[in-house]
Amino acid sequence: MNSTARIGSALGTEFAPYLGNVLPLVLAAAAKAPEYKVQAASEADIDAELDPRDQSMAVEMRGGGTFEERMNSWEIQQREVACQTLMHYVMDLGSCLGPFLKEILTVTLELIAPTATPEVRICAYGMLPKLLRCTARCTARQPAPLDSSSPSLEQVAFNEAVRRLLTGLVREAEIVEQDDSGSEDSLKELCVGLDTLSHVLEAGYSSQQRGNWTTMHLADEFMRPTMELLQRLMLGMLRRRITQQQETEVLDDEDNDLLARQEEWEQSLLNSCQKALGWLLRTKGEAAVPFSQAILDPLVVQMLAEGNSLELRLAGMCIYIDLLEFGGMLGTGVASALAPILVEFLLGKDEEARQTGAYGVGVLAQHGGEALMRALLAEVMPLLLALILPPAEEKAAAATEAKNWEDVDGNDEDFFDDDTNGCVRDNAISSVLRLCRYRRNMFDAQQLLGLYPGFR
Length: 456
Fold this sequence. Notes:
3 strands; mainly alpha
């Protein structure tokens, strides 16, 4: 199977005539679940009866004795190979899969089931967004049906994908909660699943922007479960972070490495939650705000508390910025609470905090209300201009630092070309442009141009 996938990737669309010969076999192998048995047995019987091709495990059931779980390892391997092969076809030959899309979607959605191995589920996660986009392109080329009340294939597949992803993510969240330290494998699968949910929501948003009869709308029934899942994941992460901060036990090198890897996955999980929430807000707009205010607001207040780490506070700020930008006006109460923290970030030394603060000011300029921006403008405008063009002494210090970091080729590294500093400056410029566009009546443009030497 792998060899045909490589040939198909190499030939591209020229391989399309042969898909009818190979895809049915691949789909059948991917859809076939390995044989699975659960039967009562003693540990001695388990060891004696183990087939070389089987994977077997003794499971102690509370009050029920020892049971045997047995799966055929060869069938597991064949299914994983078939899923990897199918993923190659989807990724490399998506435009040729029109006649097979419905069957491929059906099989792929089944692969997210808890009985599938993690490798199979991750393949399914990788294929789903691309399949939805392929379905959208294929159905968009077809004329609208006479009965437009019936949902299109992409609409049905979109909501079914969201439903199955949420079911799987809730299951993995329960596994992480049962293990207070957070299983690294489960955290990894949560991140992959959330990123897939983000890509699926992004596909739905793109479909809405296209605005024809095939538009994928997220069913309202999924809004609250999605918000509650994100709250559950972030609250669990926050609880684990607080527990780790309170622990005073001295760890050895191995435990420290394990803790460092876990913290990396926790941060990835936090980023994935933020991304999924951002696309949910883009997709549903103001309709998502009541759910967010009721479910996420108390959590974000905890994340923004002064005693928390900068990473947690930045995550909370990003959530509120998304709510303000994509959910419309939240009211002066929320916007007023954001303003002093944004100023604090702008004045800080951390580049990521300054980047977030600079972007947040622009969002406040557009959505935060005139009264708030009028009170805040005199304080933030000089800070934004300083980020766009730093004072001469700061520029000289940066140039000196760049000289000290001369690379092996003899070329000077330009401090101001650094990716992070560039993002800070770009966000500051974007915020000034938003102020000019949405709050033009609050300041003298000529005075602004005079303050910025680059315009002279």
